[in-house]
Amino acid sequence: MATTISATASQTQGETVASGAMPGRLISLDIFRGMTIAGMILVNNAGNWDAVYWPLDHAKWHGWTPTDLIFPFFLFIVGVSMVLSFATRQARGASRAQLLRHAVRRSAIIFLIGFALALAGRSFDLHAVRIYGVLPRIAVVYLVASVIVLYCGRRARVAIAAGLLVGYWLLMTRVPGYDLTMDGNLAGALDRWLLYNHLWIAHRFDPEGVLSTLPAIVTTLMGVFTGEWLGKASGSRLQAAGADQQHPHPIAPPRYASGQASPGATRVGQTNKVQGMVIAGALCMGAGEFWGRWFPINKNMWTSSYVLFTGGFALAALALCYWMVEIRGWRRWGAPFVWYGSNAITVYAASSALAVLSVKHYVRPGLTYKAWVYRNLFAPLAEPMNASALYASAYVLAFLVLAWVMHRNKIFIKI
User: Using H for helix, E for strand and C for coil, what is the string for 217-228?
Assistant: First the structure.
């Protein structure tokens, strides 16, 4: 992991694409990423976990809340960014092997950061440390999706995505002796067998377990398909490996021609992108709801219906951001989220580290730093649920300041 002091924001993390006819950052994606990271921090840091408004908490089992949208949104964004980043790197001369090495290195760093945070959260007890989690899942899914993108053509990617969703559904619902309860489902049983004491709920269940990682890969592939759709007008596209003998790498470089299109034609192309995303998003959400009759929408098991529903929701949300920012030109409102999005993993990891430290260190015996801050600064201000939400909001604002300082000083930490 390296700290880069850059002269322009376009050097951050490599997710670059043409907006219309001219090359530049896709600001709407930056904003969407930043909103997602802010949402992650908000829902992960309630002041009082016994007093949380339902939209800021996960569904207990089947069903969904706004909180259940956040993690799949981030994996979806990973897929969109992957397409744009790979195309940009290939345009600079990177080979497929170099892109794969970059993906392996990045995945390893993200996994190790997540493992280190989990280890600190379990008081450095290797016997009880949780192996999987949010960052490890991001790492694994990113690596697998990268291999699929680099070595498979578009039809193969679609077939893989469909196969993973259908295969996971059949495994979870057709293997004798298992059901869809927390203690009776196949994914949980496999995790107990493989990881046992290294789960979110020891000896019982982990929402980021081994088997449920398979459908999570599809969430990222849905982002890949969206990235290809967004890159069409600028010429940034992905090809089947070896499909074009003139380009030995699977990623075709972006092509920017002077005088490519008139502003009116560009606007029509952008509008078509939005319409396509809205239609695809609605169809995926509808398919998820329909499939949910037999395979319920469930974040904990990352069910196939959950993948389609949340992926469709992400499509619609990105389409709205794209329309507001790239077409209407309404950008100022999104500045705080650009700050967050510019150092997304760094800010998230820092917020998680502080959360761990605040509950592992004590002002005095029996009183953690988090409890002291909450009791003295927030609990006196409002009734418990509002005080808890105020604490979480203050946590988001505190890390917004960090993100702003880093962005203002052009400090972008690449992983």
Answer: HHHHHHHHHHHH
| Residue 368 DSSP symbol | E
SS3 category, 22: strand
4 DSSP β-pair partners: 412
Cβ atoms < 10 Å from Cβ of 287:
17
C-alpha–C-alpha distance, residues 228 and 238, integer Å: 7
pLDDT in tens, 156-187: 999 999 999 999 999 999 999 999 999 999 99
Separation in Å, CA 411 to CA 40, 78, 397, 408: 22, 21, 19, 8
Q: Indicate the average pLDDT of the chain.
A: 84
Q: State the DSSP H helix or E strand holding residue 411, giving kind and residue range, or none if neither.
A: strand 411-414
Domain that includes residue 385, residue range: 2-414
Measured CA to CA, the distance from residue 110 to residue 263 in angstroms comes to 41
What six digits make up the tokens of 349?
């990891």
Q: For residue 197, what are the contacts with CB-CB under 8 A and spacing of at least 6?
A: 127, 128, 203
Q: Which residues pair with 201 in a beta bridge?
A: 205
Q: What's the distance, Cα to Cα, between the start and end of the chain in Å?
A: 5
Residue ranges in 203-334 assigned as alpha helix (H) = 213-231, 263-291, 304-322
**Neighbouring C-alpha atoms within 13 Å toward the C-beta of 294:** 10
Give tens-digit pLDDT for 102-131: 999 999 999 999 999 988 878 787 888 888
The token duo for 401 is 């300041």
Residue 341: name the closest of 129, 99, 25, 24 by CA. 25
- CA dist list (Å): 320 to 4, 85, 242, 273: 31, 22, 36, 11
The closest of 287, 138, 304 to 208, measured between CA atoms, is 138
313-335 b/e (C-beta count within 10 Å ≥ 16 → b):
bbbbbbbbbbbbbbbeeeeeebe
Provide the domain count of the chain.
1
Q: Count Cα neighbours of 121 within 13 Å in the Cβ-side half-sphere.
A: 20
- C-alpha distances out from residue 342 to 6, 35, 112, 203, 231, Å: 12, 11, 21, 38, 20
